[in-house]
Amino acid sequence: MEKDVTIYDIARLLQLSPATVSRALNDHPAINSNTKHMIASKAKEMGYRSNMFASNLRRQRTSTIGVIVPRLDSYFMSTVLAGMEKVANDANYNLIISQSLESVKKEVANAKTMFDSRVDGLLVSLAADTENLDHFNTFFQKGIPMILFDRIMPQKNCTNIVIDNVKAGYDATSHLIEQGCRRIMHMTGNIKRNVYEDRLKGYKLALMDHGLTVDDALVQLTNLTRQDGLQMADHIKHMASPPDGLFVANDFCAVSCMGALKANGFSIPGDIAVVGFNNDPVSQVIEPNLTTVHYPGQEMGEIAAQSLINHLNGLLRINTTNTILLNYELVVRASSLRTPPAESR
Amino acid sequence: MEKDVTIYDIARLLQLSPATVSRALNDHPAINSNTKHMIASKAKEMGYRSNMFASNLRRQRTSTIGVIVPRLDSYFMSTVLAGMEKVANDANYNLIISQSLESVKKEVANAKTMFDSRVDGLLVSLAADTENLDHFNTFFQKGIPMILFDRIMPQKNCTNIVIDNVKAGYDATSHLIEQGCRRIMHMTGNIKRNVYEDRLKGYKLALMDHGLTVDDALVQLTNLTRQDGLQMADHIKHMASPPDGLFVANDFCAVSCMGALKANGFSIPGDIAVVGFNNDPVSQVIEPNLTTVHYPGQEMGEIAAQSLINHLNGLLRINTTNTILLNYELVVRASSLRTPPAESR
DNA sequence: TCTAGTAAAGCAATCGGTTGCATAAAAATT
DNA sequence: AATTTTTATGCAACCGATTGCTTTACTAGA
């Protein structure tokens, strides 16, 4: 357990002052480039590593970014984090990641922890039942930048990164209509969350644009769990006139519902055509494969992290409320395809 | 953007020395309890938060634990991390989480980052192709404790936390045998990893104990991806005498294989009984529901984190190579049940 | 009353970089 | 040759909490 090498050790060996060593290692312009090289190689030789705590203490910043997400256990979130990690590593930032498990209470606690850890900035995707951003006020007051992604909420001085969920919901619903569906059910999550609210909006718009009426009985708000999917299948079974199309705002729930529907004798897509959301791997496990909306997690993570870091480095200002929209893609698979695909020439 | 409150501010207002304030806040015995209360309430009133960097710098420790896992996007890993987070928060430790994405290269990079961040300890689950622990040598040399969980590798001075994969594999295979299977195929991952190696061992032992011979053609090493599952189904379809039982070391892969088998006209469990591993939620999506091995992620995370923290606090020594075994459970579902369940009275 | 003992609090050094402000040496200008 | 400018480096204070050692103020025992 040898002692750590410090800039003082390097300075002593090279007959220089610690100040010079510090500047050299930070590539300060006032240092002669020969000196820099000499110091750099000596540092490497001695196995020097900068003491982040001394540095942070003096600089009053931490090179740490806090990340709060509802859950880690989705393919989507995993790719988001991979993207963030990549960017953060390249920029010499650390990530502190925590999950709210969809509860405001835990989100509040996480925010406090992040604050006490003095993160330089925050990347957040909101829990299901978060009503407001009051628990982030300490950050706003201190001018600590925060970026919301995917599960967002309008907020002054806060960049949002998201896909156009209204349009995506519109496309998904329109696709079902084009496949001949006329009674389309929409199953979604807590509409406090933009992602669900907007998909619902898109659903309604698509119906209206195609001359269909919105039947409130066909809009079902749930928690989108496996259990909810099963219950919905049961509900559909007992409906006087069941839907002929089903748009679920989450693949996993869609898939569990499909399984139960099949077990109850519904044919998919014959009786009911189904579209999910997120392009979770499970969508390719179920038979028939699930039509879904894909959007780029890795890219969303990279952009979120990069925007935050750029802002921290003064390269970009997040002073005006601004929103970055990413592209999505409707991935059509068998669960919704009633017409044979158009001939490809 | 007000300035932060420091112990000097508190000291000045209360006409005390910073030393006393520091000791009081750390509940030092030499401080009068009235003084402690007075300081504590003043600190709260002023919104004081300790500067971890000053503290870390002085104490030469970071109150940070590094976590390296292959991937974040499994239900299992998400629960593990939830458990770690809980324990770490309660003990005032921070977590730095990174994923190796199953690549040694990234694992090495992550280890370096963790080292430079001066984590107090490390919790690691190894990537698929990690051959040795050389990239953690810097930690061993410095005496920084490390605990391996789930994907482990024997190592001096390193606690391992794991389930008895041999026994679990044995139980899964025995269950299939009890259901009347005689040609049981085993599909597993890279047997560099204990989890796969051991499950394979258990599989072989069970066969032998029940008087069945091990047929190498029935042991398939793959990456356990969706694609691998599909290919395996195809392979089985073309076998002269297909297996009547299938034990897959991963639920997701098992499920994709099942789907393809069904599409090829195999009945499950009639023609082939299937058992998976991990109790992933997807096991309850597929029809028939998948028999699988459940083990407690949250608990594994809690125990790993708690053991590490105890060691850091000197309450527990990880000096001898020791292994903590957690319980698992074979969850029998329809995919393997050929006999009606015994009457429950 | 005097001294030893104890409880409570303060002094000052320390952890390892960073940075504003000198300073010294070399180069350029007059 | 004298002066200004540029380049390269050093000095020393600072960031905020911690802690070994002292000091002060009481209390108890002789």
Number of domains of chain A: 3
User: Can you tell me the CATH class of the largest domain in chain A?
Assistant: Alpha Beta
**CATH level-4 homologous superfamily of the largest domain in chain A:** Response regulator
- Uncertain stretches of 5 or more adjacent residues of chain A: none
Rg of chain A = 26 Å
Order of helices and strands of chain A: HHHHEHEHEHEEHEHEHEHEEHEE
What does the largest sheet of chain A look like? 6 strands, parallel
Number of helix segments of chain A? Answer: 12
Specify the helix fraction band of chain A. 40-55%
- Architecture of the largest domain in chain A in CATH? 3-Layer(aba) Sandwich
Q: For the terminal residues of chain A, how far apart are their CA atoms?
A: 70 Å
Oligomeric grouping of the chains: homodimer
Shape annotation of chain A = elongated
Strand order of the largest sheet of chain A: 2-1-3-4-5-11
CATH topology tier name of the largest domain in chain A? Rossmann fold
Question: What is the SS-derived class of chain A?
Answer: alpha/beta
